[in-house]
Structures are given as C-alpha cells and as structure tokens.
Design brief:
six-stranded parallel sheet; homodimer; 17% strand; alpha/beta; globular
C-alpha cells in the first residue's frame, strides 16, 4: 500500500535516506530488519552503493559494524527492528562506544501516528539507545530524513568516533521526500595535536627518573609505534599499550609494546613512581574494583596527556621524538619463526603457532583470555598484522568484529582467536561469514569452562561448592564445535596436539573461499 | 579477599539476599554471571533452596524466567552481569513485560566506590532497565539488601505481575549484613473482580445485537474458558482470545476459542459493530500501523471492561454466567484424532500431527507464524494442554520460554513449536536444556526464509529486488539443524514427510531423559 499518489514521482524517504547515507560514505549495512524497516529494505535495491549483509541476530550486526568501523575509520550502518532489535545489539554497541568506533544505527519504528497506542512492539527506544549512543535522534518527518541521515553519519565520525542512532518511523520511510540530495559538504577535519602539550611533555621528561608512555588509539598505528620506539630508545621511557586497544598494529619489526596488565596489582607495579604520559589513552582505571586496591592504577598527579583519543597521537609522538633529537630506529628485526615442540596443545603453543602462521597484513580479532595473552606476547615476532580487542568487556564481540573486518578489508586475511565461552554469545556470526564467503579463520579455544570466573572466584576467596562450580563449567555437555560449524555451513577441523594445529592452520590458510573453524581442545 | 574481619561471623549480603529471595518464594535462578556477581555465585551453595541454572546467553535466562513465571505465577530470578549482560536479556524482558510475568532480575554492578571511574564495563544500567522493568532499584548499602530483595520479589508479584530489576553493587554482596531474615509477611492478595462491572456488562448485553468477548490473562484459564463458553451458549456472544496470549488453556473438551486475527483487516471485521467486552484483555490495537487502516481495531466507544489483566477475570465470567442463568456446559467433546494423509509435510499437517501427539497436560511454547496458526487451529481437538505465545514480538522467545516451563513443571511434557528464523536468536537454549536434562521436544519448521517479511514486503507493495529478497532468505547456506543440535548435545531427527514426522513424534515422546529436536523441512 504505497502512500504516495501514483503521479508523485519523488522517491520515498527510504530511498532518499539511503542515498544520503551513501553520499556521506556509508557503503555497508549490517541488517536484521522487521516489518517497520520494509521500505528501507526495498530501497536497498534502488541504492546498490549500500551493500546489505544479513545477520541472524542483532549483536552480530552491531559487532560487525564495530569491526568494520575500526578498520576503515568510517561507519557501517546497522538496520535494526524497533526497541527489542536495538536491545539485542546493545552489548556490542557498548564495546563500540569504548572503542570510539563510528557506527550509524538505523532503527525502524512504528508509524508516527501508531506509537501512542502502545502496540506490543512499542518500547522506550531512546532510553535503550542513549547509554551506548553518543548521538541520538528520532526522525520527525520525511522532509527531515535526509538531513538527519547526513547528520548521523557526520556525528559518528566526530573526533573521536562514536555510535550514532537514528530512529526512523516507518511512515517517514514511505512518504515521498525532497529529491535533491544534500551532501555532507564539510569534510571531516583531519586529526590534529597540541604543540603545547608536546612541549610540556618534553620538559617533564627531563625531571622524571621513570617514565611510562601509555598508548592508545592513533598512538598504536604504525607511525605511532615507530615514534614511540624512538622516544623509548632515546630516553629509556617504557612503553605500554592500553590493556584492550580498539586496534593496534604489531609485528613486522615494529617495536614490541606490551599491554598494561589486566589485574590491578601488576598494573600498579608497572606504573608505580612513574610519570605516566597518555598518548591517545585515557587515565588507567582498574577493570573491576577490588577491596583494598585503588581504582586509579596511577595517582592522578602522575599523569600527563600528550594527546587525547581521536587526536593525532602518532604525530604528537613524532614531534616529541623530533624535539628529543631521537634517532630513527634501525630496521626492525626480521620476523621470528618460533620452534614449537610437538605434543599437547597449550595456550603458549597456540599463541606461537598462530604467530608463525600469520601472513603479512593479517587482522586478528582477539577475545578470550586463555589464548589471547599468550598470542599477543608471541605476535610481536610475527609478520605485520593488526589486532582488534574487546574494548568494553561485553562478551560476544570477537566473531562479529572479525566478520566486519573481513567485509571491510577483503584483501587481508582475518583471524578470530576466541574462547569457547565467549564465542557462544554471538555464535550466529558463523552463518553470515559462510553466506558472504568471508575467508575468516576462527580459532576456538575449547577449555570447557569460564576460565576468568574460576580465577575471580579464587581472587574473592570463595571456595566454590557444587552450584558455584557448575556455573563456571561448560563440560556437561561439551560443545561439539565441528557440528556447530557444520550447522552453519562452515567447514571445521579439530586440533588436540601441536601437530594437529600446525596442519589445521596450513589447511585454513589454503581455504580462501569462505570461513573455516578450528577447534583447539585444551586438556 | 573477604572484606569482613575474621571474627565477624555474620553472613555476607549475598547470602542474606538469597535467603530473603528464597523466603519470598524464589527457588530458581537463571544465571549468566561475571566478576561482579561472584559473591552471589558463591552464596548459591549456602542457599541450596535456590537452584542455579546456567545460560550461555542472557536472553536464554530472561526468556526462561518468563516461561517459568507464566507457569507458576511466581518469579524466577535471573543473575546478569552489569549493563551489557542486562542488555542481552532485554528483548525477552520486553516479551515478559507484555506477558505481565513476575520476574526478579538481579544485576551485579561494580563496587559502589568504583563506579565513578567509568571503568570499561560501566554503563547507565537504569536507562537500560527502565523500559522493560515495572520496578527498579539500585541497592545503596548491604544493610538494605535484604529488604530490597524482598521488595523486589513482592513488586514482581503485584497485580498484574511485572519485571522487577534490582542492581546490586559487588561490595554490598561481600559486606556482612544483618542476620535476621525478614519475611515477606503480607501474603500477596488473591485476585478479585468488580461486581459493579459484571452487573454493568450484564445490562449492556441485552441492548447489543452483536457481542464479542475478548479474553486474556485469567479469562483464558480453564475456569475462564468454561464460564465464557456458558455465556456464549446462553447469549450467542462470540469469543476470541487475544492474538498473543501469555498463557491459554486449550483442548480436552474446553470451548474452542479462536485467536483475534493478526492482520488488522480481519480483526476489524471480527469486531465490527459489536459490543466488545474485555475480560483480562486490553483494548485491541493493530500490531503494526498500516496506512489507511485504524490503529484501534474496535472504536473506543464499543469497548467495555469486565475485568482488567491481573484481576480475577475467570471469576468475573463465572459471576456473569450466573447472572445470565447460563446453563452448565455439557461435557466437552472427546479429543479428536486427525486423519493426516501420508505425503509431503505442510503447516496444516504439522499442526494436526502435533495436536494428535500431545499428551494430556502438555505445555506448548509457540513462536513463528508458519506453523503456529495451523497448530492452534487444530489443537482445540487435542488433549488438554497449555499454550504460551510470544506476547511482545521480540523474536527468540519460544525456546527459552519452553526451557523455563520445563524447569517449572517437571511433571508435564513441554513442546516448542518454532520457526527456523526465530529459533536462531536464542539458539543457545539447546545447551541448557541438554545440561538440565529437560525433556523438551523442539519442533523446528525449516522453510529457510523469514516468511513474515516476505508477506510484509508484499503488503507494502514493494517488488523486492535482489538485495531485499536476500534479506528474507535463509537458504544460503541452509541451517543443518541435526548438526546444530548435535553441537549442543541434543539428539535430533529430520522429517520431510508426514510419515517421518509421525515416527519422529513417537520417538520424541519416548525420549524422557532430555531434550530432542525435530527438524521439519517444508518444501
């Protein structure tokens, strides 16, 4: 039932909106639509510049948009069905908010005139969206839809990036809308840095015996790594990356920058008595509060900011290196192939085998502590690669982020290093990878437990009885990862030994026509 | 690191809180905990009256609590990890809100003194919780925790039931708390009805040629069915149930009460020119707004309320039947076994075969339109059973609700009649069913599409091009349901013909030691 007169040849709001999004730089839409998004679904065929990618669950869509945005620095759209559809995507939007990833959520809503009747699917979308959205708007008319869309895209690309959520009632998608497409005329400004801050840090360096640089955001680019390495070599300062960076380059001869430890005791010891220079990172805070330990991992008066997240922290580091007359680094060490003895599979062996296997330009989405830490430790010796981590702690981020990165960068090989517990939250990612023929290599560490919870129970001094113990165990029944993969049309291999995994990784690298999953069974 | 002195033998806030919940009637906790819930996890072993059931994804926990609460009329608890954990459970809490199910969400939070530092997992939990929670409270001290818990349980059991959300910072879980357990001393009042309303309806009946009773909530109990049947027989009034009742009895000789049609054209025609008597139902509203059709399916001045949701609508109907001197109904017709000819599987055949197979006292969770409507049409002739439907339209409700119903009613057989698209949102339900050895029979209609979206595209007059079409199709790759079931430790059978399904249903009924899945492939 089209609601414009047959003689009205103006395009619908949905078409105009998608055209506006495309003009502003959106070329992918991760979608899980319902009835209130049908005009937008129909419009996708009139705006082929926007590629639709279907997710079976909304958390797959929002996580994929996060991975996409981290790689390209511009937003993918999501298309979600009213409040409950948005709600299913919120956990990964929480991670995206912490990663400062540009994302444009398009949330369909009831027809504007239908909302007041509180039909079954009605809910307070704004209340749901606000906590995870830096920008929020509900469209109030078809005439505004085009500008709203442009504003949403631009808002997502502010400095730093953010999640933008646009709620579009279905009647405004259907109504005819003005035809002239306004472009996002002002270019997004290039990131900059503060010369004054660089000078101030330069002066402070001389008066502190111990200096730690805490790097995040653009400081973890290749340029940032190289400049930070020069500074460290010239001054003796120590370099750490945020514990959970949105994106960091690594390997290929780049300086080996360790992550700030996760548990507060170790992090406090790293930062103790140091001048802490924040380059693209914020003040380090304990992940959780533990009685008797401070939340602030470094005293506030020990902190100084070289560059904020979103600013050109890499250029600020280069400028600081210049001021220090820090020599250029010698060519980085060649990649090291680890010798991993045959035998039972351990987290360390997994980390090293994956490090050995990475082709140059690989992207590795890391979620799950069991193998994540050993891999990152090993991978400084690997070929140049990009690591994406879980920035916000909402579990179920690793597989969708890998999916989105693979859509963003079809010329690069994508790996997802994942634990069995965390993979379950957005397991539906496998299907979209298969459907889109994305050659993602999924490595699932199977230890049949929530390892972190067992650790935390121990830290709390709780002696777990049968109920507590069972809440941390995934062994009854164990997941059959080969069967799960088959269920979603993904080929899979099981590795129980070093030899198995070496073989499986070689197989996986040869498999370029779609995803492949490797179950890595720890004893 | 326990934070009470060794000499302090008072139990922790977590223990006191769980004891309070148990005393107030909570005996099951559907849990997906994280670090900030560890004291509550540990406390579960000191309060064995509360059974912990682990879900791999929070939507499984909240949906299970919905199914549990619908069957028992008292809340299960959920245990969720901060804002993102709650967020993953919101879609099924939306359904529970529409079902008016009593649920007590227990959401752990950062230590109260840690919140201000905006650690990675921090978010605005209240903003997330409010849209789906009739009652919300954040605990402000260990001393209040016990009372807060009792208040939360009682709030969830208000008239009608509602979702109550209690946010518990981890430090208050750890701190010692007063030992005397206060009980919820006032009994929850029994539901009542208004005699005046009954009298008023009695008078109106005489002056209207066409009368439709729209039944919901307690009017769909066995008593409500029988009383409504008497009224219809005596007056010629027509009976309809809400389109998506939280719970309805059916079969076993009960009057056959059809559901109000889903699409507005048909619903409007049913209600046209009638006096519409609302018994436990609210004013009927179109599920979605369609241009040119009213949102209100019956004019407001045609509506009169006999009993509100939460009130004793069944007793009100009985009283009305008395006032009408309506004779007692003759004994209901015996169950009818449908003759289903061998051959290809159709939705109608599926509905009838399942109707034939239901043992007395079965519970059927219905989600997905393809087979849902034909089944409900058929099942008036089945043995007495209870049907639970998707009340709020947030997809992914059917499997968890079946899980929760099976935990609530171990003596009854539970079926989940489900479509392939909707089953994917909370597919992790299979694992918890296997783990808890719940003999749920899952019937998955495999039509490899989002059938409702294809219908809605057609209604919108959209001629789908390749992108729109692909967003409604699930055939590339098709799900392998046998493999998915195996992945979660659930035995499974595939049925492509009537003979197959007859065989599979017989097998499934014999399988009483855990869940079983039947993939029903439509052509």
């Amino acid at each position: 039932m089209p609601i414009q007169a047959a003689s009205d040849t103006r395009p619908s709001g949905a078409v105009v909106a998608l055209q506006a999004a495309a003009s502003a730089g959106v070329s992918v839409c991760f979608a899980n639509p319902g009835t209130t998004e049908m005009p937008l679904v129909g419009a996708l065929d009139q705006v082929p510049a926007v590629r639709a990618v279907l997710g079976l669950f909304e958390g797959v869509c929002t996580g994929a948009a996060d991975g996409y945005g981290r790689m390209l620095g511009r937003p993918a759209a999501t298309l979600l069905h009213l409040g409950p559809g948005l709600a299913n995507g919120l956990a990964n939007l929480h991670n995206a908010r912490r990663a400062r990833t540009p994302i444009l959520n398009i949330v369909g809503d009831h027809a504007s005139w239908h909302l007041k009747y509180d039909a079954p699917l009605t809910s307070d979308i704004e209340s749901l969206a606000r906590p995870m959205s830096g920008w929020y708007r509900a469209v109030v008319g078809a005439e505004q839809l085009q500008q709203d869309m442009v504003d949403g895209v631009r808002a997502s690309m502010s400095t730093p990036g953010q999640v933008a959520t646009l709620v579009v009632p279905v009647d405004f998608q259907q109504l005819p809308a003005p035809q002239q497409v306004r472009r996002a005329d002002q270019a997004v400004p290039a990131p900059a840095f503060s010369e004054a801050r660089v000078t101030a840090v330069r002066q402070m360096l001389t008066s502190h015996a111990k200096v730690v640089f805490l790097l995040g955001d653009r400081a973890l680019s290749e340029r940032g790594h190289m400049a930070a390495g020069r500074i460290a070599a010239a001054t003796g300062a120590r370099l750490y990356s945020e514990t959970f960076p949105a994106r960091t380059e690594r390997g290929g001869g780049l300086p080996d920058i360790d992550r700030l430890p996760y548990f507060p005791e170790a992090a406090i010891s790293v930062l103790k008595d140091a001048l802490v220079v924040l380059a693209g990172a914020i003040a380090p805070i304990a992940y959780f509060g533990y009685e008797g330990l401070p939340s602030e991992l470094a005293p506030p008066d020990s902190l100084t900011t070289l560059a904020l997240p979103g600013e050109a922290a890499d250029q600020a580091l280069e400028r600081l290196a210049e001021l220090l007359d820090a020599p250029t680094l010698p060519a980085g060490a060649a990649c090291v192939e680890y010798t991993v003895p045959d035998g039972v599979l351990t987290p360390q062996a997994i980390g090293r085998l994956l490090s050995n296997a990475l082709p140059a330009g690989a992207i590795v989405s890391v979620e799950g502590g069991t193998c994540g830490y050993p891999f990152v430790t090993a991978s400084s010796q690997a070929a140049h690669h990009t690591i994406l981590t879980n920035t916000g702690g909402a579990i179920g981020q690793g597989l969708p982020v890998a999916l989105g990165a693979a859509v963003a960068c079809p010329e690069r090989r994508v790996f997802a290093l994942q634990s069995d517990g965390s993979a379950q939250y957005t397991i539906q990612s496998l299907w979209t990878m298969a459907r889109e023929r994305l050659p993602v290599v999924m490595l699932i560490t199977s230890n049949r437990r929530y390892g972190i919870l067992q650790t935390e129970l121990g830290r709390s001094g709780i002696e777990p009885g049968p109920q507590a113990q069972r809440l941390t165990l995934l062994d009854d029944p164990p997941f059959d990862w080969l069967a799960l993969a088959q269920g979603y049309g993904v080929p899979a291999l099981r590795a129980q030994t070093v030899e198995d995994l070496r073989f499986a990784l070689a197989k996986a690298l040869d498999h370029t026509t779609g995803p492949i999953l490797i179950e890595m069974r720890l004893a």
